[in-house]
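Hmm, what's this shape?
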Amino acid sequence: MAFRLICFLFPLLLTQPCSTTVQSYQIISLGLSLTALDDNTSWPSPSGEFAFGFQKIENGCFLLAIWFDRIPEKTIVWSANRNNPVKRGSNVMLTEDGRLVLNDQNGKSIWRADTAGRRPAFAAMLDNGNFVLANYDSDNLWDSFSQPTDTILPAQTLIQGSKLIARYSTKNYSTGRFVFTLKSDGNLELCTTAFPFDYDDSCYWSSKTGGSGFRVIFNQSGEIYLEAKNKTMLTNLSPIVPSTQDFYHKAILEYDGVFRHYVYPKHPSLRDAGWPMKWSPVSFLPLNICLQLTENEGGGACGFNSYCSLGDNHRPNCKCPPGYTFLDPDDVMKGCKQEFVSQNCEEASQAADLFHLEAKENTDWPFSDYGHFKTVSEDWCRNACLNDCFCAVAIFRNGECWKKRIPLSNGRFDSSIGGKALIKVRDNSNLKPDSSRNNNHSALFIIVSLLLSSSVSLNFLLLLGAFLAVFCFGYGKTKKIQLETTVQGINLRSFTYSELEKATNKFKEEIGRGAFATVYKGLLAFDSGTVVAVKNLDTMMRENEKELKTEVGAIGRTNHKNLVHLIGFCNEGEHRLLVYEFISNGNLAKFLFGNSRPSWYKRMQIAFGIARGLFYLHEECSTQIIHCDIKPQNILLDDSFSARISDFGLAKLLKADQTRTATAIRGTKGYVAPEWFKNLPVTVKVDVYSFGILLLELICCRKNFEPEVKDENEMVLADWSYDCYKAGEVNLLMQNDEEAMQDIKNVEKFVMIAIWCIQEDPSLRPTMKKVTQMLEGAVEVSVPPNPSSYISSIGSF
């Protein structure tokens, strides 16, 4: 790959032939060097956006690196010595004979650029982030773009045989456990490495383009795609991205095995459009590494004896099962170890009394099986594992039992798994003898002994007995009440009212209010200062108990990045409260209908998030859920302005054999599907209708119904949108939205999707799975009919 420097070097050399300042800025001459010092001395690019030099890292050593130099984070995108950091006083020199050499503080050669025997005349740090060595003909003899580490940038290309190797951890830049590679046969793959070696081991994502993939292109517009030799796009890795004029872009294979495309606003003004001044991910591969990474030999996404659940930004969240702890708390992906002595095989039946099984729903460790039994009960499965010294975990699902031995591999937690893991733990295995408890028991024994020897012992014992009876009865009664109000199969914290009163400072800071509840901001001081949102249901409402159970029952079973996370609840006396994670940027209504127009790209990312969340509720959740009240007020935005569906108070749960249900009208005017008013059985298609209205609002940045609009034809957004689409004038919906106008083809596509969603006939509406596929470009969008027509010949999705 050749790079022609003369295009920008020649005019500079003509206009400033003697200026050493300009030449040092544009050209790095032979004989120049840099020394690793704390001031990060570097050779910057002409614009100052990138720099080449020494970057100090966490352990006090230095990397010879390239980084984004205009942002506070100084994000490293390439390094020469990732596996061999150097100390202060080391230097890099472009020698008089054209060699680029890195020497440590003792003068020992650590790294050098391989120019295949050709002699460079100069070096340059370019504005696209590429560092090059070139000859007098401006031919590129070596460049950093051809030697990538874990990151690629716009204008960079990966050819067959190229690979990105993830760093080991966030702070350790050495080669890690994952590789992104374009194979010589044209297949693009994400694989684990045979760590500590960097060759491929188990692959967990593939483009399936063997025989046709030619190169991966990260173009100047910010799109990343796999191209065939005839320049046909085979796989689009980043469907919709914001402009490179307004955002810095990078794509990185991160230490957790996920390939992410990030953007960073170049201008603080973009903060008003919903962009935080930090790196924000806009695409991910794979979507769920916990489920997609399965190794025949290896521990999986989180290592042996651990399990993986999907967290924010598709990041794997590694945890240890009960009775296990991390091998290395600073490297949770190494896996977990047992904290107790395993069962003795010589006396397995007697030793079984020393163990118990802890249940964890929707958890499994594939490939650790050594026994499989069908048509058995859970009790049979439990006893079989307890009395088997080899059994570390039993999985019970749909009348089947799997026995598993350690080390457990490929652990994952996800609502789509179903069943439960029964984890064998030694009784009190994690607890050392509690000296304070023993001391208390000893003291109690002494006091009782003394009292028994006194004349008042009988009276004291009677009083003590009465106290214990009242205490135990009251405690048991309270516990019984709490247990009766929980929902089967859900692991949530049950709070007391006084705990939540303290957490919210007596419900001081109100952050939201609805028809039947008020939401307050709180702080769980006993839980590492976790910030929460406490939803206090109206005590005057007779159905608040029902709403509490509905919301707990619906969202308590879910686990998805586009749904708000329920932490726990309170059902004490007349008090009905729900405790959620705190979502920092409020609801979509405030964001969408405020004074400033959010960016087109961010609006569409929000639409994608809502669609994925609904697809999960309808088809991927263990219990199918119809939300029944999708509207901007019920979509919350986290610190990255990603969508989180909230407020499941009106949700309807369907049994496994149900596809529809009969129920009273639910939802909010303007977003309610027509079948609600016709006393027809409702299906998940009512959520599709509401999403269609919401999608139009996201596209146009205005409410569905605005009576103050002068033109009656524009008063109802759904009607006006179809009229504009039918007339071929979708641009009228944009109203001075220049960013959207530059993407008018996608605007038209999204309007078409919305029109399909708001069809009056539910059978014509697509499923949320198909909506998601259409939004992402995986499925073509056909011409939609008039939403109010019933043309059966069109066919249903």
